[in-house]
Design brief:
heterodimer, A: mainly alpha, 8 strands, globular, B: alpha/beta, Rossmann fold, six-stranded mixed beta sheet, four-stranded antiparallel beta sheet, 9 helices, 10 strands, binds adenosine-5'-diphosphate, binds magnesium ion
Chain lengths: ~525, ~260
Amino acid sequence: MKNSATTRQESDRLETKSWLNAVLARPEIGPIGVMLLLFGMLGYFSIPAGEFSLNPFAGEGFNALGIRNNLRVISQLGIIALGAGLLIIAGEFDLSIGSMIGFAGACMAMILRWGFAIVIPYLSFDGGMHIEFFTLVHITDVSALTAIGITMCFTLFFGWLQGYIVVKSGLPSFIVTLGGLFFLRGLTEVSLRAFNHRPDQTKGATTVTEIPDIKNIIEVPGYGEMEREAAKALPEADLTAIANSLPADTIAAITERLEYTYNRVAEAKTDILIAKGVKPMERALENALASGNDYMANIIQDKIANFKIEPVVAKTVTDTDIARVYLDSITTARPVANFFGGDILEPVFDWLYFPVDWNTNNFGNQFAPGLYSCVMIWVLLSILCYIVLSKTQAGNWIYSTGGNLNAAKANGVPTNKVKISLFIFSAFCATIFAACQVFEVNTADAAKGNLKELEAIAAAVIGGIVMTGGFGTIMGIIVGAFIFGIAKEAFFYIPGIDGSFYRVFLGLVIVASALLNENIRKRIMGTL
Amino acid sequence: MSAAATTPLIETRSLVKKFGSFTALNGVSLRVYSGEVHALLGDNGAGKSTLIKILSGVFPPTSGEITVEGKVVSFASPRNATDAGIGTVYQDLALNPLTSVTRNFFLGRELTRFKSPFGLLKMNEMHEIAMQEMKKIGITISDPEQAVGTMSGGQRQTLAIARAIYFGAKVLILDEPTSALGQKQQMEVLKTIRRVQQLGNIAIILITHNEIHARLIADRFTFLSLGEVIGEGTAKDLEGDDIKRLMAGGAKIGDLAKELAV
Ligand SMILES: Nc1ncnc2c1ncn2[C@@H]1O[C@H](COP(=O)(O)OP(=O)(O)O)[C@@H](O)[C@H]1O
Ligand SMILES: [Mg+2]
């Protein structure tokens, strides 16, 4: 017997992984590949017809507006996918997310529009038996923060209730939250119709409109608080007065920028006019060449070469223009509403327009004002979730609750608390999603958030979350949201195919991801 | 017997456990000393699992008492038993196969920078302790980040045992630790038990069906049959045949042969 046999240990039997193997064994590697593929598709297919570029960022999918809009879709989905994903890692589902979005949005909007009241109904016999209401509290002109706070009370309570029922009854969360899905959607529709005060409630609107544009309320010196658009529509005399009241360097800066814009717009207009003028001649040239009429062709070529057009004259900067730009630059007087519904990175996007000239549309104007605020909220929540899941005790509890519930219990992990907390967190994410929508568009609709619960679960699965729990990462959920959010756009630009193919693609990706996840799980469980 | 002079680390006196009208344990007394492996043997249904469930606080006895280091204790929950120094390693080992060695070692008792579920984990320190503690009882793991699911059955047993000891177990209860393992891994586990035995300050209650294993490693034996102790003694007291006979519930081979005859 050789001596080496005795020094060999059980641990030596586990192959030490090479660097490459270690990377390939990461659960996120597949999804990251799919994400890069979609980025490539979006980039190349969105390069306008007739142009050629090796740089995918030259495409429309990656111009300033494309980035702004795509990141909005991705980050909104990403927010709820965090809630859904963490819950799945702990071994439970939440199908009520979509309805919760609708409910939370409606709740917030109703409070902003009509105020908040606590009433006690009672039977009254004066003039026939009927129900009357005794109003305990009634507040109107509710601030954004209060509206969100009150809404959170309802939604977090509902999340707690669902979690409580699941852990106490042992029922599958699928069923309990399916109940939540119908209950909340119905409740939302019923309340919206009731509050819209239509005599025939079956026909009442299930929307809330005419909420002021809260995030754009600004303090205009000498005029008090008003909506930005209203301020910009003040009579010319007032605007002039505002402009004249500004310090000289502010005026100089605004003027410089406005002159740049006006010149840039004029330039763009000239280019468009030239293109318009030359195009018919180019077509004639083609015809001439095709029919072999060289004489004509020469003449037309000459004409094209000498085609001139009076350059468009740039507008001159007026006081009202200066005042309007100044009003645009005043920061909001309602930071909470702006936090959820406003824009971020505006100075960067300004700079990308002037002087960088990248954030410029075909007409010479600034393309995107910034990114939607929900992107920042998504980033913050993702960092928070990453730290909690990977770096804290709570994270280990979440993993073990989903990975082996009995083991977790036997080791003293408060698994019920873990689950209930994550149901609450899922409701929290849905409420944040709703706040972003309500404060951005200033309306609410009972149909908002429809099917979002399934999208969130799909994003989590695509990102490597195992449906049976115990396995997955925040990085994966983020990548999943990117894939789900960008697939539609990427397919939209492919010439000559039906845009709905993106759903076909996503369907395949979901099943493929689930198979891959199961394979990884089995390999880790040692059963493969 | 010199050991009898010292107090047992854990002792049960006339434990009775009734499930309704069914008497699972009928006055079981047991003495377990530190540094010893105490084999608990008996046929299926003899009441071994019931006994250790009482010891580990899963349910209380109907009557009788338990003493730990001479003091009478009563457990309202498994947590109480753990706090009193009784560490039970169940057959499923209470491990989460999907996470790392370290995360399992500290499951439920993670070391954090400040005391809160949201306290940051002291990962490096935890890695070091987990590796070191497992090494003490015989297994060197190359990677504390390794998922427990990829470990061998023997390694998992060692992890569960090392964990119980590190978190203060004075009495270690092992419920059929070798039953689901292959020959080679059974030996790994026995080696681990031997190392714990050699630490000298820990008492081990070993439940097993395997007479050879019991004879290889146990210092003291208790035989259960139909909820009662039908025999006990040190390894020296018992002859080979005795063990076989007692394990079969007290019957002699000759009697069994008669029973078989039709
Ligand atoms: N919770 C219970 N309720 C009713 N009877 C039980 C319960 N647990 C065990 N028993 C019975 O008690 C007896 C002893 O069981 P157990 O302690 O599991 O035996 P062993 O582990 O020695 O095989 C068996 O007949 C079993 O059916
Ligand atoms: Mg048993």
